[in-house]
Amino acid sequence: MTKAKPNLEGDLQDQAHHEYSSELGVTTVQVARLPGFRTQSGGDLPFIDIAYQTLGRLSPQRDNVVLVCHALSGDAHLAGINPSTGRPGWWDFHVGPGKAIDTDQFYVICSNVLGGCGGSTGPSSINPATGAPYATDFPPVTLREMVRAQAMLLDHLEIPRLLAVTGGSMGGMQALIWATDHPDRVDTCIPIACCLAHNAMQIAFNEVGRQAIMTDVNWREGRYYGRPLPRHGLAVARMVGHVTYLSDYAMHEKFGRRLQRPALPEDLFPDFFSVESYLQYQGESFVKRFDPNSYLYLTKALDRFDLLNQRPAREVFGPVQARFLVISFDSDWLYAPEQSRELVRLLKRANLPTTYLNLTTPYGHDSFLIRNQEFSRAINHFLTGEYRKLHGVGVRPAAERHP
Amino acid sequence: MTKAKPNLEGDLQDQAHHEYSSELGVTTVQVARLPGFRTQSGGDLPFIDIAYQTLGRLSPQRDNVVLVCHALSGDAHLAGINPSTGRPGWWDFHVGPGKAIDTDQFYVICSNVLGGCGGSTGPSSINPATGAPYATDFPPVTLREMVRAQAMLLDHLEIPRLLAVTGGSMGGMQALIWATDHPDRVDTCIPIACCLAHNAMQIAFNEVGRQAIMTDVNWREGRYYGRPLPRHGLAVARMVGHVTYLSDYAMHEKFGRRLQRPALPEDLFPDFFSVESYLQYQGESFVKRFDPNSYLYLTKALDRFDLLNQRPAREVFGPVQARFLVISFDSDWLYAPEQSRELVRLLKRANLPTTYLNLTTPYGHDSFLIRNQEFSRAINHFLTGEYRKLHGVGVRPAAERHP
Q: CATH classification of B10-198+308-391, choosing from 3.30.390.30, 3.40.50.1820, 3.40.605.10, 3.30.470.20?
């Protein structure tokens, strides 16, 4: 894959339209019901469901666990074919036998976040007190609370500690929270394309999406369940998100100024561009799989994320035991490399062993979802190397079976 | 003004809230009714109104005319205080006595585009055939047709040729069309923060705005006049536009992660950020002054803009007589400097005298709307120098009365 002629993959294409087979075959998601959860905002959830997937085998010493945290629109279906959609998990390129996170070596866990809509408790879940969906009675949740819910899941699974916690974007922020809030449970941390705190531009783009949803007449203060969804608002929110996830170069290469089809008599305007068609398709597809209220809750949790939150870096990073591999992408203008560099500077100042990789890719923020051998190798070599350092014995580096 | 501590002005603040007085005092806009207009798409307009403003005095030789073309949300009110709003025109920083475009020396004209909603004929104008607004019966118009309508206005005003045509963003694209479609009428051309053709990312952001408007239940296929406006859709469109006009640096400096106010009991979420409040305000203000259908028509005209449009550059630039000053801003990621450089390469290859300035500013695309001495001086020196070259005698370079 060269920069000159990128073959856009990952989130840039509808994988189901291609003959894509996962080495993992069909994989499933389970749900754990966990005891009551009280949020910082005073919300009381009598129980929470957390949907999760496990891949690979837990070692007898329980020392080979890799936790993967998903991004805004992700879910617990990390890799392998989802039987209900026929589509591969969102990180199938990077998780599987012989892949970056090698399921022959590691026990890999991914769970849907609290507040989400992929099987975990969120605004669309039934509130046992009323028998109706929580809707906007659901308490605001923070990324720290999503991590706390994941920690409860690991307790439930009797996983004492993590060889690694990783994720891109919102997943990377959760990985950072893991390393700082649960320092005694995290050996290594791989935050990808993320930041120490959402900045004004990141908040602004999210707010555009929220306003699109909340001003849709069907939103009805969030009480739209059993009625028409605020689908147009959610579609617009997804469209604006999509544009920010891509680089202008990637969009130029994929779409340029190509027209989707000749003008039709019913068209308001001539020249229906392919990129317009693509965005409309992405918006409409998203509506079928994502709850608008979850979109509000998760984007607001992202915007409220601030790892230091007025605390001195010394206090936040002092107890941390993890070693870090920080990855960013040079074409990512939404979570720009400068934000990762700022994180790296703080980690190094705290004397935490940190490797930083700013990869050259043409794909923008979506780069972490896309097939990329350099990215794969970096993660695989870090994980196998760290396992060897920790346990004296090696896990076998993944054969480069990754096509 | 230093890069370290920018004092954001121009479009970044509501100028009416500050004690801002224009050296031009109160200025007005006139409307010219021009004979029938046939569009490329086959639309027939029995007449068109073009709203325009003139500032300064036309020289007896009629050789000191500067035409300024406005951007997407601009209008004919270029400079001086608008009596109906109490606010200065959109380029008051740069047009006036002693300013970049010195009204003591030049006769300055600015007209609202065909298809707009600032006094020129557009979708919200009355269709004389029906007595009701055109709405979406208004024919799609192109930037070339907007320029053709301006040329008709100049004929009406008996202005044979232009010392200069300039504008930022959509205004810059019109300036380029002037130089290529009317080569015998243009002495110099100053395209600012623009491009040779809209690229996929620019189309994508516009399409998000259009979808927000067209999926608003109040849009009703554009026939909302006399009924509730699709105000929420237009507000979301304006919000996404605003984010793209600013740099992340400018937003960070102006807003950072500051909260607008303490949380209220009715807030769905804690932490209402200043940048959210700002965007909501911008969206709501825009609804009061802009027609949603015009927003659709103008953004689509922008997206369809392609100066070469499959023609060889030799054919397009061959007849051009103008000399060029091309300006871009290094922090502008929406109309990135690379697009201006591409234009400059073509102009130079066509042996057209071209000066290129890529200014260092922290403000993003909005830089051309903001007080900036370097920008002002560059334009003023170019205009006075070119006038001297053309006419043997000088106009006096503007004293730097610009504060």
A: 3.40.50.1820
